[in-house]
Amino acid sequence: MSGRLRKWNSRVDDYLQRKAAEGGNVVAMTRIGASLRERGEVAEAETWFRRAAAGGDRIAMTALANLLAERGVLDEAERWYHEAAHAGEPRAMLGLGRAYERRGRATDAEHWFHQAAAAGDVDAMGALGHLLAEHGRYDEAEDWCRRAASSGTTSAMIDIGIVMRERGRYREATRWWREALAAGDHSATCLLGRQSERFGKLQDAESWYRQGATSGNVEAAVRLGLLLHRRGDVDEAEAWYLDAAESGDPAAMTNLGVLARNRGDEGEAAAWYRKAAEHGSIPALTNLGHLAEARDELAKAERFFRAAAETGDVQGMLSLARMLQARGATDEADTWLSRAEESQGEHDRA
User: Fold this and answer.
1) What span, in angstroms and rounded, lies between the C-alpha atoms of 38 and 111?
2) Which of 29, 191, 199, 270 qualifies as a cystine partner to 52, CB 3.0-4.6 A?
3) What is the rounded CA–CA span in Å between residue 167 and residue 10?
């Protein structure tokens, strides 16, 4: 068939599809919405998805929910996921599970992930495995992750590796992470690097981090920077931190602040710490507290330390306790010291 004839047939198909949709056919409406979305005409796609969803089409409900979720209209998205999930749509069950997971409703998330996974949805199998692994239910997690991994889901390969690591089966963990990397998931380089560091194989760790960093993985760039920083290769470390900071990574911004302070530039250090804090870095708040304390701005320092401590940062708790003790607030200081000890114990067990 010539290109000209294919184009003509496509126009005829579009015309017939639109006529059917205008006549009330919800399947045709959904197909038009999908076609428009593929072409980037999202607003018109949403109009057609809404018409089909209102007519009871569960695929349209799910597609509409996905559009809404992507632009941050989460409450309405969840309502459509809920309706489509109860109508038996596996992709909606997955979406609803993710909505519940976002809100911390793990039991509800597990229920809907399980429903979707039982219906054969591979992404739901991976999501269920990940959720179970996060809650330490490794036997169940492994089963679902293996099912997803066998279909090529690299995130499931990553999760199986984590389960194997938690069980002390490091070689098997490495095998799964290597498999994920071979399939194109460069986040695996961070896990491979961290495991190498754990066993004192710093050259191997550096090799893994470089592979991830040069492939554009931001976490790998930060970890490579840290490794170089610790061994004194400050210039190259700073270069990798800058790459990661340009991608919005708060840990990299915090580390750039540390480098700036180490070379005596407290103004630049404060600028990086503030930027990092704006991007969610809690250690940056503690570091801002140390800068304020060095300038004898004790009230400001205490505010920074308290902000960090209240989010669970151990160094923030210890610094706050030290300041409280210095001004005689020993009871509150003891409370923060106890909390710091508990948090450190939990971190060591993890």
Assistant:
1) 31
2) 29
3) 56
Please report where in the chains the tokens 């801002």 appear, as a residue.
288
Rounded CA-CA distance 60/47 in Å is 11
Q: What distances in angstroms separate CA 22 from CA 35, 47, 95, one per listed residue?
A: 16, 13, 29
Neighbour count for residue 28 (Cβ, 10 Å):
20
DSSP string, 205-271: HHHHHHHHHHTT-HHHHHHHHHHHHHTT-HHHHHHHHHHHHHTT-HHHHHHHHHHHHHTT-HHHHHH
The token duo for 71 is 């632009």
| pLDDT tens by residue, 67-125 | 999 999 999 999 999 999 999 999 999 999 999 999 999 999 999 999 999 999 999 99
Cβ contact 158:151 at 8 Å: no
Helix (H, G, I), strand (E, B) or coil at 25: coil
- Distance separating alpha carbons of residues 110 and 128, to the nearest angstrom: 6
Query: What's the token pair of residue 252?
Result: 């990299």
Confidence band, pLDDT 50/70/90 cuts, at residue 347 = low
